[in-house]
Design goal:
three-stranded antiparallel sheet, 7 helices, single chain, alpha+beta, about 200 residues, Arc Repressor Mutant, subunit A
């Protein structure tokens, strides 16, 4: 009697847990940047969540906006306390200021309802920051400083530089999650505090 040979799908066609977790451990995973990895994440979401949970991490995912990242839980229990895997980053005043200003631009775009994408040039961001930064007699040094702050925010993943136009950036909507809704209630007060900081710096 002829036996029917079972066929197994090639492992290459199945979503792989390892690459998905590695990409998340390296930083924010964006759908538009890693389409294949993103699709695998959608299929493996529960497995990824279970896998990273043992390391004290939570999978934070926004399908509508197309991004995912890992967040380390804070635990007060000695039994559950784990070495910190995701390092906290202390942002300088200008970098945190630029993040707040970009967050406000996202809010304005949402309220306007026309185009949810926020695209800004380097000059536009520099102009946004000038009023909050201490006056500098040397314009070239001020521009260099602002460039440094913009590059830092891009390095953190909150800005995406256009390859064909290096001085143009898209504001990443993950900023909405990391500078969360609790900031919105007193956003104007925060900006006023930055102005006061600039005046007394």
């Amino acid at each position: 009697m002829e036996q029917k040979q079972e066929t197994n799908p090639s492992s290459e066609t199945l979503p792989q847990l390892g690459p998905v977790v590695v990409h998340l451990m390296k930083g924010v995973l964006y759908r538009d940047a890693r389409e294949t990895v993103w699709q695998d994440l959608l299929l493996l979401e529960s497995q990824v969540s279970d896998y990273v949970r043992v390391m004290g991490l939570d999978l934070m995912m926004d399908e509508a906006e197309g991004y995912a990242y890992l967040h380390q839980r804070d635990s007060d229990s000695d039994d559950e306390k784990l070495p910190r895997l995701m390092q906290r980053r202390s942002l300088s005043y200008p970098v945190s200021l630029l993040c707040v200003l970009l967050r406000k631009k996202l809010v304005e775009a949402d309220v306007g309802g026309e185009d949810l994408r926020v695209v800004l040039t380097r000059d536009q961001m520099a102009e946004m920051m000038r009023v909050f930064l201490q006056d500098q007699p040397n314009e070239a040094k001020l521009v260099d400083r602002i460039d440094t702050h913009i590059n830092k925010v891009a390095e953190l993943g909150f800005l995406r530089r256009f390859q064909k136009s290096p001085d143009t950036f898209e504001v990443r909507r993950i900023l909405m999650a990391l500078v969360d809704a609790s900031w919105l209630a007193d956003l104007d007060e925060k900006l006023k505090a930055y102005l006061d900081h600039a005046a007394t710096d």
